[in-house]
Design a protein that fits this description.
Layout (H helix, E strand, L loop, with lengths): L1 H18 L4 H13 L1 H29 L5 H26 L12 H10 L2 H22 L2 H26 L7 H28 L8
Helix pairs in contact: 1-6, 1-7, 1-8, 2-3, 2-5, 2-7, 3-5, 3-6, 3-7, 4-6, 4-8, 6-7
Length: 214
Amino acid sequence: MIQIFEFAILVIVISASGVMAPGPLFAANVAYGLKEGTKAGLKIAIGHTIVELPLVILLGIGVFSLESFPEFRIIISIFGAITLFVFAAMQIKTIFLKKELTSFNPKQGPIVTGILLSALNPFFIIWWLSIGFKLISDAMLMWAFAGIFIVFILHIWMDFAWLGMVSFLASKNSKILSNRNYKILMIGLSLMLVYFGITFLIDVMAYPQSKISI
C-alpha cells in the first residue's frame, strides 16, 4: 500500500509539470472556457485522452519487448533525468518570456482541438517517450501489465481536473489565473522536476555495478 502511495505521488507531481505547462492546449482551453465554461475543458481532455491512451499502451508494449536488454532501465533512467532537467529549464524560461498566458483563436470544436494539439505537440510526444516511458517501466516492474493502466489513471485524472478547472475559472474571469500566480506555480513544479531528476540518477547508482557498463 505504501509502495503504490509513493509511486502515485511521484506520477502526480511529475505529471503536473506536463499537464499545467503553458502552451497551445492551455491557451485553447482558456479560449473555449470563456465561451463554454467547465464543459469545454472536459471536452478538450477527452480529445487529449483519445491520443494519450493508445500512446501509453504502445509504450507499455515497448517495455515488454525491451526487458531482455540488460541496460534498458539504466538508459531510460538517465534519459528521463536529463529530460526532466531540460523541461524544468524550458518551463522557467517560457513563463518569464511570455507576457500573456493565452493568445489562441480556436476554430475547431474542443474535442477535435484536444486531439490535434496533443498529437501535433512535439513536447507531449517527447515527454511520454522519455519521462513517461520511465514511469511506465517502473510501474510494470511492480505490477506487470496492470502498471500501464495504473500510470495512465494516475496521470489522466489530472488532465480532466486541471483543464476543467482552468476553463471554469476562465469563464468567471478569475484572478487565480493571473500571470503572477501561474508563474509561481510553474516555478514550484519546475523545481520538483529537478528534484525527481536527481532521484532518477540516484536510482541508476543503486543498480549492481556489473550492469552499469554503458
